[in-house]
Amino acid sequence: MTDNIPRMGQGAYWQDLQVGQRWRTFRRTITEADLVAFINATGMLEAIFIEDGYAGGAIRGRPVPGALTYTFIEGFILQSLIQGTGLAMLELHQKILAPVLVGDSIDAVVEVTAVRPTSKGNRAVVSSRIEVFNQRGEAVMEYTATRLLAGRSTT
Fold first, then answer.
1. What is the DSSP code string of 85-117?
2. Ranges for the FAS1-like dehydratase domain (predicted)?
């Protein structure tokens, strides 16, 4: 049996988190292939995303959907902070501050803003503020997320 061997890449349990803790994610450059794959997967066939140099667009360059920016950052958070401990996304409030273009590199700072143990089971409601930046250090998105996280096993 291997149950007593720690799992590689295991996320943080709610007991490991404190209000004010902060982490910085890795950075990722968004490519044309990322944009095309995302559009094909989601059906976001909007002209500003599928036509290079769309004349009716308000943004110069090759903009990407805010949802793509968000999902890359959530991927970082999942892989590093809540893998195996995240139980549910309960609430999300998002604000787009600036466009992200193909070729931009994004990363984020995640800050724990609340940890509230639940009365049922070994879990807690954890809130965080996520600030997303481009390669120039400009804020491009901010959002708050409230998640249900598992606790460390008591057995």
1. TEEEEEEEEEEE-S--BTT-EEEEEEEEEEEEE
2. 18-142
Burial 118-148 (b: 16+ CB within 10 A, else e): eeeeebbbbbbbbbbbbeeeeebbbbbbbbb
- Residues of the chain below pLDDT 50: none
Residue 1: its pLDDT value, please?
A: 64
Q: Which two tokens stand for residue 52?
A: 């290079």
* pTM for the full predicted model: 0.91
Q: Is the CB of residue 49 less than 8 Å from the CB of residue 67? A: no
Identify the structural domains of the chain with CATH numbers, from first to last. 14-150 (3.10.129.10)
Instruction: Residue 92: name the closest of 80, 105, 77, 106 by CA.
Output: 77
Token code pair at residue 15: 């007991």
Q: What is the pLDDT of residue 54?
A: 78
> What is the structure's pLDDT at 56?
76
Tokens of 77: 């958070």
Strands 86-96 and 22-24, bridge-based pairing: unpaired
